[in-house]
């Protein structure tokens, strides 16, 4: 809301000036002083005098009255009518839609100026005909926008819920639909006000505007244009007022948009797309010989990673970066250490908000721009034997690895594939980005890959667009992209979550096949489904609220969890014949409100005073297992 | 695909633009040899020879057509197709034709002329002078070069009709909107709404004329743009110089201005409605307005005050003693209002138009002054077409109007002050002026110059008294041109829109 | 697809008929008599008899339904009638004027896209930065300055003072191609200014939206170069809604370039329409409006089809 | 039981017209085809099947939110198609719905209390003065804090919202609730909370419930009777324990095999059902499952098998119905 302060206060000042104009110590708006026409600024007339010797400042302020009330009046009137038409048409559809939205669209076929011309000529120039003309002009816009928004909202469950409740349709339209189509409507209103001010000036210019001697900015511009040579400033003042006001309304509109729909404007755009000067990029952290895992800054047990690791993450901390913004520095992932050996499948499991996805994104430098790695290292052994700290790589360094040595499979293949690019092209693109292959060669290889991931009729599918494939096939194509360059490390982020059971089983089987084909490939499998973990992973890392709480071999952990959270998770799965499931009370604390001690303590049945005091260190109940619980010995 | 295409096209366009800039202004603004580039204010709505289709159309008609008569640059009546004209002893006008040819090469005959008069005066004719021509009861053609017109009663003003640019002669049997005439230029090509191209007619009956090889008339509807085009060197001559630009053109030594006071602004009344059915109220209005301010505000000082009937002070019919008949005198105005029973003033509407800035500005100044004597005026400023209809139908109390008289003769004012004519937006609505009508009629049939002066002086006296209209100001009508344009003359007074006739003598130096 | 086009065409014909009827009726409500006007040119008094004669000749004395029937009948047989003013064929005039208007609009669109898409993309990539603010300020300014002000200033600076370009007007391409292009650039550039602002803003919003999409992250995860991600995965996807908006904007421009045509003396369709309304030239007005609405509807259809071509997810089945 | 069922669907079908080409033949795509199903008082019927099998459409039809193209729904003996307008809205009191998406099912702009109170107001369940108290009672019932009423949905987590949605559904004191995937969008620990809540409510309030889900474990846990759907048709219906204990239809068996389990450990070579569900626009002839069925033979293509009684209270639509030959049926 703070964003709105500037535009709203400017508009408030303008409106105050306009409303208070009659009581302000201004000159008479109609008083002519023809001998002093075109006089320059003076003490009596700050902005000079116009072609009739009238005070320009006064006319500017009174002109705002006409221009703004016409613009705001018509924008609001059109909003009310248009919204009513759009809501009714969008909710009831059918005949009502034809009579409302479609009928309003007839107006769009008429040239706007002709419409204004006809209305104003039929009714005579003046304030109200102008408002009417502009209202007619803008109504279809609103109707269209509200109609589109209504169509979106009417299918939502809370509208269905109202119908299921037996609420009267009109009440649903007014109470449920209207408030929810308001954001686009509000934005449109501020847009229309801006546009109406311009149109009013255009109509006044053509002599279709307000009737003199009432001033309006358009009339002032029209009069001044003729006298451009004699008194150019007369053109400047109303133009400035016009541009300034519209600028303010545009600003309001932009800000309103970002306040009503915060998702629409991410701060800072796309940092990764900006080309940085080569000198500015940090030197690549080649850590040959040195074992970074020994530099562990956080006190506690050493990480469970050895020299044979493909990847050793240590002390990974991810925080919100927002210069001076709220919550800057808030840690979303804290001090995570995991390692993956070649050929091993590591599952990272946790609920939403546990930081499991962020961890995998951090490895490839794909964190959202608002997040950054503030501490830690991730040593990766590349194909050529170099040891790279993935967290220290810059965008270019990451780009060389991504899709080649390290590749990713995302959760929602439907969203993750480019909807307007053919599957084959999306595949050959990744091949050609890392290998010197010709288009034809890459195309052939793409088809082979599709065949390899079990897509029937791969020749034809290569020419298909993602939406022409079924969900399972899309995920297969996504996997084909990931394995196209035979990666050393595959990061799979919830690859089966949105799929049906039989398709999920197929995809899991495919992943098993691929691992069998590439025995050296390490896999990090991010999921929230414990059962999937049991099926596919060698080792599992359980994350909670941004921290790693337990890690070890899958079979052992499922057989005997050594952290209350893991135990509760397993107990909450509705398998076995338990009458009641183990439900963990409460919810995961939001990142800004982490408890001081063990983060799970508030929801833990076994928490004691000591748990709430300090963050527990890692314990090793067994050589290859870790847990972050003070009381693991007693409670598990 | 789209992106690439766009980029390529854009590059091509900008490259073209770049090379044009490089060529520089000379190639763009080079004067064309012997062809005058004329900036018109409007495209002729039609080429109907006899209909009143506006001043731009008038100019075009004066290029391609010639009538029996015309006005000389000094404003005097002169013969065109007619070599001589006189009233015979029976009171009929006899025109002797000269040896002229139509642009198709055939000779102009008396029969052609007779046919013109007959066609234009037909009941279903739309000729501007149809009413006047219908007073010609008979046209005789005793031989190929003699035309004799017989009128119901003798008419002193008949030759003036045939000098009107809305009464040119066309070849017998041609369509009324033919562009084939006997004038100095042939219309070669038109681009409707944009331009007209004329070339010299080598068979023109005046030897050595026209001096120009051709005329290219281009329409610039926007007055500012018209001036800009002249200043930019795109054209050689423009009509309707806007008043705000006159000084600028005068001061520019690359240009010259030829301006005369001719057209005038005035107020008309609705004589069918109170309070303007009362002459006292009308006269109060006449005294309430300070005309200098109209000249200053609406015409940038380009014109003169007009506090009597629009008879120019250079005219033989000018009456110096009546010149201040409606002089600015707010006290007198208030007194007249009080006498008429409106001591506290009243509310009314004033019709003008927003389409023409001068009409609107004039109305605004009038409104300001009328409010000072208690007449609260609400402006009604529709576009021109609606204004015309409202004027014709009397849908107003008070209206601002601007025009020229038909010619410099006081009879040319008939349209404006003769209340016996049918309702029209150019005159007051429903206002009976029996005395004025009587004087006008008398003037028309009087041939003696001195007697006519007396008649019209009496008429003006009555007009000042009864105030059928209120004269406001003369406005300057100007042509702007390059210094090398010679021979073009802005004709005096009401004849300014006849200036096109001098294009036959115009040359590019 | 064919079926869709056929369906839309039927709707379009109905729509155009509604528009034509509406305009026909509205026109007869508008005060001002064509015959009277035609004979009152130059502020002269029209002879009532002459006016009556002309009314009869123009068929204005017929009852309204008969005039309407004549009109619609004419349209159905492909005859748009002739001008009240000089009897010029309305269809012929439209054929002459329309290309000029389209020329301006298309040139303006090309300029606007060529300048607006990069500007919007840049602003999106630098969202919140000073580049973004400058572009946003400029586009607001472009949107808020009336074309007649821009036009006047352009003429003053470039034609009157610098004398780089002619002061408006029109020359046929065949007569003088260079001059034609120069004259075209004035109105097209002015129209492009506002259009540029719209395109830049739309592009910015659209690119920002696409940047947030998962498939861009996928493209990054594939290790593609910045340029390829930007062109193939961001801008290409972002352009789909931008082109739609561009199409619709162009649709409104077909009859909406009056001021620009006036200021630059460009003899296009909009100016023709206004002069026809001014003269109450009914056949011309109705004819022009019909053509404009057909074009508008057609353009909408084209936009939809192009949309479906650009975005394979959209199916035109109905 | 001789009592009439609370809700009874008979021969329900729902199709959507589809045309191909300009003069193309008009075809119907069946989302639901000839489904008969009854829910008794206090009974929980679970419907499972993969996306596109028609289970959600069935749920919405059962509530009268969507009109069936054929067949009838009787609620408490009254045919829903026969009532409309205000009477229909009055009947809505007795049937409510809980939706899948906890973010889409609540109006983001109105307070939680107001949304729960909607049902109370529309049907005048309690006098105006007691609405606040009743809202508080409902909020308490679903295990939320009292102060929740004044807050907006965005202040709640997914699980809490789903509780709010349940409270809203309960406000009208319904007899019958359709819960369409009520837990599938929730995290595991939260999912358990809601599953427990629904189980408690059914037991304590004696609600009849139609529980739609694709997770076999959840359905098995919550319902007394299970319905398995494939391509718009019921393929197996019977007591939940027995259907999932020893499935008789090969599809049910495949579904179970495909569902991963934490207790089974790492799968080695399990039978993965090949292919995908055919498009409803172009269903196979005969048994619609035959294209993926390991047991399919030529006769399966001949005719659509009947939903035939298999054991008392257990019906199967398969000519080869019977217990699995393999021992691999899990869990």
From TrEMBL, chain A:
Q: SUPFAM superfamilies, alphabetically?
A: MetI-like, P-loop containing nucleoside triphosphate hydrolases
Pfam families according to UniProt: ABC_tran, BPD_transp_1, oligo_HPY
Domain ABC transporter intervals: 311-570
Give the bilayer topology.
Peripheral membrane protein; Multi-pass membrane protein
What InterPro entries does the record tag this protein with? AAA+_ATPase (IPR003593), ABC_Ni/Peptide_Import (IPR050388), ABC_transporter-like_ATP-bd (IPR003439), ABC_transporter-like_CS (IPR017871), MetI-like (IPR000515), MetI-like_sf (IPR035906), Oligopep_ABC_C (IPR013563), P-loop_NTPase (IPR027417)
- Subcellular location, record wording: Cell inner membrane; Cell membrane
Bilayer-crossing residues are: 68-92, 113-138, 185-211, 232-252
Keyword annotations for this protein? ATP-binding, Cell membrane, Membrane, Nucleotide-binding, Transmembrane, Transmembrane helix, Transport
Domain ABC transmembrane type-1, which positions?
64-253
Q: Give yes or no: UniProt keyword Protein transport.
A: no
Q: Which domain of life is it from?
A: Bacteria
Q: Which PROSITE patterns match?
A: ABC_TM1, ABC_TRANSPORTER_1, ABC_TRANSPORTER_2
Give the UniProt family note: Belongs to the binding-protein-dependent transport system permease family. Belongs to the ABC transporter superfamily.
Which NCBIfam families does this entry report, sorted A to Z? oligo_HPY (TIGR01727)
Protein name per the record? Dipeptide/oligopeptide/nickel ABC transporter permease/ATP-binding protein
Q: Which organism is it from?
A: Jiella sonneratiae
UniProtKB/TrEMBL annotation, chain B:
Q: Locate the coiled-coil region(s) and give their ranges.
A: none
Alphabetic keyword roster: Signal, Transport
Q: Name one Pfam family in it.
A: SBP_bac_5
InterPro entries linked: Peptide/Ni-bd (IPR030678), SBP_5 (IPR039424), SBP_5_dom (IPR000914), TAT_signal (IPR006311)
Kindly list the places in or outside the cell where this protein is found, as annotated in its UniProt entry: Periplasm
Q: Where on the tree of life does the source sit, at the highest rank? A: Bacteria
* Residues making up the signal peptide according to the UniProt record: 1-30
Solute-binding protein family domain location is: 78-417
Q: What family does the Swiss-Prot or TrEMBL record give for this protein?
A: Belongs to the bacterial solute-binding protein 5 family.
Which protein are we looking at? ABC transporter substrate-binding protein
Q: Give the classification, highest ranks.
A: Bacteria, Pseudomonadati, Pseudomonadota, Alphaproteobacteria, Hyphomicrobiales
UniProtKB/TrEMBL annotation, chain C:
Locations listed in the record = Cell membrane
Where does this protein chiefly localize?
membrane
Name the membrane topology term.
Answer: Multi-pass membrane protein
Q: Which UniProt keywords apply?
A: Cell membrane, Membrane, Transmembrane, Transmembrane helix, Transport
Recorded hits in InterPro entries, A to Z, give:
BPD_transp_1_N, MetI-like, MetI-like_sf
Pfam family of this protein, just one? BPD_transp_1
Q: Pinpoint the ABC transmembrane type-1 domain residues.
A: 98-307
Among CDD domains, the record links this protein to: TM_PBP2
Q: Where are the transmembrane segments?
A: 12-30, 104-125, 137-158, 178-199, 238-265, 285-310
Its signal peptide is: none
Identify the PANTHER family for this entry.
Answer: DIPEPTIDE TRANSPORT SYSTEM PERMEASE PROTEIN DPPB-RELATED
Give the family, as the similarity comment puts it. Belongs to the binding-protein-dependent transport system permease family.
UniProt-recorded name of the protein: ABC transporter permease
Lineage, uppermost ranks: Bacteria, Pseudomonadati, Pseudomonadota, Alphaproteobacteria, Hyphomicrobiales
From TrEMBL, chain D:
| Keyword tags | ATP-binding, Nucleotide-binding, Transport
Q: What is its main location?
A: membrane
Query: Where does the record place the ABC transporter domain?
Result: 7-256
Q: Name one Pfam family in it.
A: ABC_tran
Q: Does the keyword Transport apply?
A: yes
Q: Which residues form a coiled coil?
A: none
Record-given protein name: ATP-binding cassette domain-containing protein
């Amino acid at each position: 809301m703070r964003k709105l302060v500037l535009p709203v206060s400017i508009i408030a000042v303008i409106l105050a000036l306009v409303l208070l104009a009659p009581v302000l110590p201004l000159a008479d708006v109609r008083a002519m002083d023809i001998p002093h026409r075109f006089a320059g600024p003076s003490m009596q007339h700050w902005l000079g005098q116009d072609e009739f010797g009238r005070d320009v400042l006064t006319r500017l302020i009174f002109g705002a009255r006409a221009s703004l009330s016409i613009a705001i009046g018509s924008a609001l009137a059109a909003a009310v009518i248009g919204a009513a038409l759009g809501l009714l048409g969008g909710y009831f559809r059918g005949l009502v839609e034809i009579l409302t939205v479609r009928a309003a669209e007839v107006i769009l076929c008429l040239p706007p100026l002709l419409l204004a011309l006809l209305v104003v000529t039929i009714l005579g120039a003046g304030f109200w005909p102008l408002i009417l003309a502009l209202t007619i002009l803008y109504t279809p816009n609103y109707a269209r926008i509200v109609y589109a928004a209504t169509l979106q909202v009417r299918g939502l469950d809370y509208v269905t819920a109202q119908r299921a409740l037996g609420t009267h349709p009109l009440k649903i339209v007014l109470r449920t639909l209207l408030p929810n189509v308001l954001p686009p409507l509000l934005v449109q209103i501020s847009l229309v006000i801006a546009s109406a001010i311009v149109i009013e000036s255009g109509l006044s210019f053509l002599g279709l505007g307000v009737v003199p001697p009432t001033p309006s900015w358009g009339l002032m511009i029209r009069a001044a244009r003729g006298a451009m040579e004699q008194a150019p400033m007369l053109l400047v003042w109303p133009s400035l007022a016009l541009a300034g006001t519209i600028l303010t309304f545009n600003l309001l509109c932009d800000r309103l948009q970002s306040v009503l729909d915060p998702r629409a404007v991410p701060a800072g755009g796309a940092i990764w797309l900006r080309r940085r000067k080569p000198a500015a990029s940090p030197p690549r952290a080649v850590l040959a010989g040195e074992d970074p895992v020994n530099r562990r800054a956080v006190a506690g047990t050493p990480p469970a990673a050895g020299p044979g690791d493909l990847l050793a993450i240590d002390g990974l901390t991810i925080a919100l970066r927002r210069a001076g913004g709220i919550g800057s520095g808030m840690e979303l992932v804290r001090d995570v250490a995991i390692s993956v050996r070649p050929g091993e499948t590591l599952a990272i499991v946790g609920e939403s908000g546990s930081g499991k996805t962020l961890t995998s994104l951090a490895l490839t430098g794909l964190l959202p721009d608002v997040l950054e790695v503030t501490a830690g290292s991730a040593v990766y052994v590349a194909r050529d034997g170099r040891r790279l700290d993935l967290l220290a790589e810059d965008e270019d360094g990451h780009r060389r690895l991504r899709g080649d040595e390290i590749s990713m499979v995302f959760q929602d293949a439907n969203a993750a594939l480019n909807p307007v690019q053919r599957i084959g092209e999306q595949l050959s693109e990744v091949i050609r980005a890392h290998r010197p292959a010709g288009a034809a060669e890459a195309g052939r290889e793409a088809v082979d890959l599709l065949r390899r991931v079990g897509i029937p009729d791969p020749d034809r599918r290569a020419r298909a667009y993602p939406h022409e494939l079924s969900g399972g096939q899309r995920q297969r194509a996504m996997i084909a992209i990931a394995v196209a360059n035979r990666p050393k490390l595959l990061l799979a982020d919830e690859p089966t979550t949105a799929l049906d059971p039989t398709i999920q089983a197929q995809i899991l089987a495919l992943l098993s096949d691929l691992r069998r084909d590439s025995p050296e490939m390490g896999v990090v499998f991010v999921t929230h489904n414990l059962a999937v973990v049991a099926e596919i992973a060698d080792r599992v890392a359980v994350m909670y609220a941004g921290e790693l709480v337990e890690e070890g071999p899958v079979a052992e952990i499922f057989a005997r969890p050594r952290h209350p959270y893991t135990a509760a998770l397993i107990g909450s799965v509705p398998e076995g014949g338990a009458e009641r499931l183990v439900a963990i009370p409460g919810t995961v604390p939001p990142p800004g409100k982490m408890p001081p001690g063990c983060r799970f303590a508030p929801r833990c049945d076994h928490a004691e005073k000591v748990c709430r005091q300090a963050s527990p260190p890692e314990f090793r109940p067994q050589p290859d297992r870790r847990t972050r619980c003070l009381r693991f010995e007693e409670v598990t | 695909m789209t992106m690439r295409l766009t980029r390529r096209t854009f590059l091509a366009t900008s490259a073209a633009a770049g090379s044009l800039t490089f060529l520089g202004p000379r190639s763009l603004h080079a004067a064309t040899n012997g062809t005058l580039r004329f900036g018109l204010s409007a495209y002729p709505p039609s080429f109907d020879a006899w209909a009143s289709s506006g001043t731009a159309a008038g100019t075009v008609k004066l290029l391609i057509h010639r009538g029996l008569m015309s006005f000389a640059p000094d404003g005097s009546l002169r013969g065109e197709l007619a070599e001589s004209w006189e009233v015979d002893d029976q009171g009929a006008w006899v025109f002797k034709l000269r040896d002229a040819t139509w642009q198709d090469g055939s000779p102009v005959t008396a029969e052609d002329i007779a046919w013109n008069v007959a066609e234009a005066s037909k009941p279903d004719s739309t000729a501007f002078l149809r009413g006047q021509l219908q007073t010609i009861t008979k046209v005789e053609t005793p031989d190929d070069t003699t035309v004799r017109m017989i009128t119901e009663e003798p008419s002193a003003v008949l030759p003036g009709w045939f000098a009107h640019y809305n009464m040119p002669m066309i070849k017998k049997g041609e369509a009324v909107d033919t562009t084939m005439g006997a004038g100095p230029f042939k219309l070669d090509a038109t681009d409707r709404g944009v331009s007209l191209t004329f070339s010299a007619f080598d068979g023109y009956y005046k030897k050595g004329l026209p001096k120009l090889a051709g005329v290219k008339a281009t329409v610039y509807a926007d007055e500012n743009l018209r001036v800009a085009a002249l200043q930019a060197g795109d054209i050689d001559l423009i009509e309707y110089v806007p008043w705000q630009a006159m000084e600028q053109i005068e001061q520019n030594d690359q240009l010259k201005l030829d301006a005369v006071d001719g057209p005038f602004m005035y107020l008309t009344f609705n004589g069918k409605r109170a309070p303007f059915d009362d002459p006292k109220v009308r006269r109060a209005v006449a005294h309430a307005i300070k005309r200098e301010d109209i000249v200053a505000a609406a015409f940038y000082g380009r014109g003169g005050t007009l506090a009597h009937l629009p008879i120019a002070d250079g005219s033989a019919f000018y009456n110096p003693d009546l010149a201040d008949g409606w002089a600015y005198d707010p006290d007198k105005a208030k007194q007249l209002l009080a006498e008429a029973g409106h001591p506290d003033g009243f509310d009314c509407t004033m019709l003008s138009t927003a389409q023409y800035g001068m009409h609107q500005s004039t109305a605004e100044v009038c409104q300001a002054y009328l409010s000072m004597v208690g007449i609260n005026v609400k402006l009604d400023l529709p576009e021109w077409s609606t204004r015309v209809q409202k004027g014709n139908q009397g849908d107003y109390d008070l209206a601002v109007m601007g025009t020229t008289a038909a010619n410099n003769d006081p009879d040319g004012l008939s349209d404006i002050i003769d209340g016996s004519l049918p309702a029209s937006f150019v005159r007051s609505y429903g206002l009976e002026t029996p005395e004025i009508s009587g004087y006008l009629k008398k003037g028309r049939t009087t041939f003696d110059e001195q007697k006519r002066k007396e008649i019209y002086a009496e008429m003006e006296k009555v007009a000042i008294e009864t105030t059928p209209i209120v004269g406001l100001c003369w406005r300057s009508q100007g042509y702007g041109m390059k210094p090398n344009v010679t021979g073009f003359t802005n004709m005096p007074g009401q004849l300014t829109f006849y200036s096109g006739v001098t294009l036959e003598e115009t040359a590019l130096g | 697809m064919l079926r869709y086009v056929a369906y839309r065409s039927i709707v379009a014909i109905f729509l155009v008929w509604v528009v034509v009827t509406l305009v026909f009726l509205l026109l007869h409500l508008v005060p001002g008599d064509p015959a009277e006007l035609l004979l009152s040119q130059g502020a002269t008094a029209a002879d009532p008899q002459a006016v009556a004669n002309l009314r009869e000749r123009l068929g204005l004395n017929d009852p309204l339904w008969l005039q309407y029937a004549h009109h619609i009948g004419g349209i159905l047989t492909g005859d748009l009638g002739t001008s009240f003013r000089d009897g010029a064929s309305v269809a012929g005039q439209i054929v002459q004027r329309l290309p000029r208007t389209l020329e301006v609009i298309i040139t303006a669109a090309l300029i606007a896209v060529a300048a607006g898409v990069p500007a919007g993309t840049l602003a999106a990539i630098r969202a919140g930065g000073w580049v973004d603010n400058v572009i946003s300020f400029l586009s607001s300014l472009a949107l808020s300055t009336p074309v007649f002000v821009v036009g006047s200033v352009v003429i003053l600076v470039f034609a009157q003072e610098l004398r780089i370009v002619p002061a408006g007007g029109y020359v046929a391409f065949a007569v003088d191609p260079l001059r034609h292009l120069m004259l075209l650039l004035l109105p097209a550039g002015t129209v492009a200014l506002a259009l540029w602002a719209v395109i830049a803003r739309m592009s910015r919003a659209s690119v920002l939206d696409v940047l947030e999409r998962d498939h861009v992250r996928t493209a990054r995860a594939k290790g593609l170069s910045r340029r390829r991600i930007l062109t193939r995965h961001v801008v290409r996807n972002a352009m789909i809604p931008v082109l739609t908006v561009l199409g619709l904007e162009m649709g409104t421009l077909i009859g909406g370039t009056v001021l620009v045509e006036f200021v630059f003396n460009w003899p296009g369709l909009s100016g023709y329409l206004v002069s026809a309304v001014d003269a109450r030239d009914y056949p011309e007005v109705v004819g022009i409006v019909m053509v404009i609405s057909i074009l508008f509807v057609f353009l909408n259809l084209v936009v939809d089809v192009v949309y479906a071509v650009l975005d394979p997810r959209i199916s035109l089945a109905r | 039981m001789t009592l009439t069922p609370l809700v009874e669907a008979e021969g329900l079908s729902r199709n959507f017209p589809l045309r191909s080409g300009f003069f193309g033949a008009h075809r119907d795509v069946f989302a639901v085809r000839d489904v008969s199903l009854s829910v008794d008082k206090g009974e929980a019927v679970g419907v499972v099947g993969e996306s596109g099998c028609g289970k959600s459409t069935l749920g919405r039809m059962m509530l009268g939110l969507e009109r069936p193209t054929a067949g009838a729904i009787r609620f408490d003996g009254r045919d829903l198609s026969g009532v409309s307008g205000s009477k229909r809205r009055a009947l809505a009191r007795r049937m409510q719905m809980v939706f899948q998406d906890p973010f889409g099912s609540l109006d983001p702009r109105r307070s939680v209390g107001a949304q729960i109170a909607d049902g109370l107001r529309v049907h005048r369940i309690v006098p105006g003065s007691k609405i606040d108290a009743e809202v508080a009672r409902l909020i308490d019932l679903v295990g939320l804090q009292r102060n929740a009423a004044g807050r907006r949905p965005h202040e709640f987590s997914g699980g809490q919202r789903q509780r709010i949605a349940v409270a809203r559904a309960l406000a009208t004191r319904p007899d019958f609730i359709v819960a369409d995937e009520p837990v599938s969008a929730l995290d595991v620990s939260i999912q358990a909370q809601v599953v427990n809540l629904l189980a408690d409510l059914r037991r304590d309030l004696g609600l009849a419930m139609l529980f739609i889900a694709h997770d076999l474990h959840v359905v098995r846990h919550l319902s007394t009777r299970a319905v398995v759907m494939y391509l718009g048709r019921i393929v197996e219906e019977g007591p939940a324990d027995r259907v999932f204990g020893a499935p008789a239809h090969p599809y049910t068996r495949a579904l179970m095999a495909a569902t991963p389990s934490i207790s089974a450990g790492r799968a080695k070579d399990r039978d993965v059902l090949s292919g995908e569900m055919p498009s409803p626009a172009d269903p196979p002839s005969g048994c619609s499952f035959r294209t993926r069925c390991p047991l399919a033979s030529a006769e399966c293509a001949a005719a659509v098998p009947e939903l035939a009684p298999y054991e008392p209270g257990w019906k199967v639509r398969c000519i080869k119905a019977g217990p699995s030959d393999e021992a691999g049926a899990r869990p």
